[in-house]
Amino acid sequence: MDGAKDVLTPMSVSNPLLPVDSTPTVDPTQYRKLVGSLQYLAFTRPDISFVVNKLSQFMHTPRQSHWQALKRVLRYLKGMGVTDSPLTLRAFSDSGWGWVNVGGRSTTAYILYLGANIISWRSSRQKTVSRSSTEAEYKAAANAAAEIDWVQNLLHELGIPPLRTPQELGMAPIVKVVLGSIAFAVFWVLAVFPAVPFMPIGRTARSLLGAMLMVLFQVLKPDQAYDSINLPILGLLFGTMVVGIYLERADIFKYLGTLLTWKSQGPKDLLCRVCLVSAVSSAFFTNDTSCVVLTEFVLKIARQQNLPPRPFLLALASSSNIGSAATPIGNPQNLVIAVQSKIPFGKFLLGIVLAMVVGSCVNALILLCMFWKVLSVQKDEKEPPTEVINRPEEDVNSHRFSPATMSHLTSQDLNEAINSHTFPGRSGRIDVNALRNRVVGLGDANGTKDVMENGPLHKFAKWKLILWKIGVYVITLGMLVCFLMELDMSWTAVTAAMALVILDFKDARPCLEKVSYSRLIFFCGMFVTVEGFNRTGIPSAIWNFVEPYAKIDQVSGIAVLAIVIVVLSNLASNVPTVLLLGSRVAAAAATISPEKEKKAWLILAWVSTVAGNLSLLGSAAILIVCEQARRSQNYGYNLTFWNHLKFGVISTIAVTAVGLPLIMFIA
Hints:
With 667 residues, this protein is mainly alpha-helical. Among the domains are: 1-81, no CATH class; 89-163, no CATH class; 169-229; 411-512, no CATH class. It is 65% helix and 6% strand. The protein is built from 30 helices and five strands. The chain has a three-stranded antiparallel beta sheet, with helices on one face. It starts with 27 loop residues before the first helix and ends with a helix.
């Protein structure tokens, strides 16, 4: 029956079924098995009830005509049996008031649809007399609600994921739709675009303005607005930011920056190193942090070697986005996906890491092809090696990655203290001249310097600094191990942050002041605004239109879904896109299988992150690189919108297309 053609009706009206006709008899055993199976199916398929009842009348001596009619039912079920539709549970109820009937009892009727398929129905007299038609309608609705509850429990026991809520089934009242759309439009214009002349209050305040409008317009109640704020995401974001601050103080980014110039083989090798270092650092230290720290360093190396900054800035920005897609802590949208999907850190990493590695290689290859001639020419014209290679360590070590004043003693502070004959202590700066009077047998400054460099005070501070750095690295590694052990990521990150504060053993205010609290507030406003927009019903209506064409088990459906994510990520930014689409894409994929649901989350993480490379407005990391490069005092460079777009379109399409098959295969 696999190759049989489908039919639109279960029974032919032109060929009546008779107990005895001229056709030969067939094997009754096979006939009885099939008809018996169809009798069970007829309980939930009223469209075949009549024909199954008819075929059951010929169980004793089935003939060839009866067998052909039976196979027609199977052909009908093959083509028209179960309609491919979302797992939306809907119920319709009605009642007929029984005043005109004998006994006065009303009639109750309801029917349940799972998607487009009828799964349960009933029509019967009510057990008691209703005193009004309203009471009769209420009883019918109550019976339908009880049936819905029973079906939901049954589906849960069968392992089918939660069904779509009634809130998502229809549009809100027209007033709420209009006001909610206005509030979301205000949020989108003011918060997504980096600079709005008529409202120069900053992105954080603009996000709060959108949230305030949602409550002010009564799209959300105050309690609903508070409930929409996802505290696990905020806790995870706060913890990772604190860990990143202490890692920066522990010179982790200085060591990564040193890899860029260590035994470099020329401009092309340097470009590949920028792609590698930025991708790896973004995966574990977030893409925004990597871009803030490494931008000026990359500009400095490019200027020293007489190279154009543009390809290296593009490599830094694009590779940071691609690398950050590999882990839940790589970027904000992955944090949202990890918390909502509950995919463990290890499975998330394994599902995307291969796509990240291949995508980074493809991205580097595109950069080399686009700037091959420029890098080759600059390689011949760069300054003599003696002017650059003689002082690489000094250039790397003297670069300050953070404008904030560090309360902890760094290696740079130690070198400056030694060279200037002063040393930072607990109560201020210690003068070397004062130490001379306490040192026996030393008569000049050179002797004092030798004591400072080789004495117990210097060695103690040096070893204290080394042990503190090792402690920071061990705590960070322990946090990653806890992530792999599938512990709660939010509390794990907060615990690691507090462990670093205790390890520092001094006032944590200077480090905690570097946390981007404005970003946390921005997320709070965005959570409220997006929740209000969801309650208007507009996102559900749009997704219901797109969903039939975005099936996760079809190549064309994955392509359509990827296009939708890329467009929305560049129009509304990637985090709002994840908040709007995440649950809907996962619910549609869960109707197929739990494995498809996991793939849907990973595809959303990959595409929404890589889509940030399309334009300057697609990702905060790219905006950071552009702003850092433009404002650099000594190595300023203006990366324009069009210069980035020429590369961004090609890179986004190629990297997304390469990564999707790998994610589908591994996941």
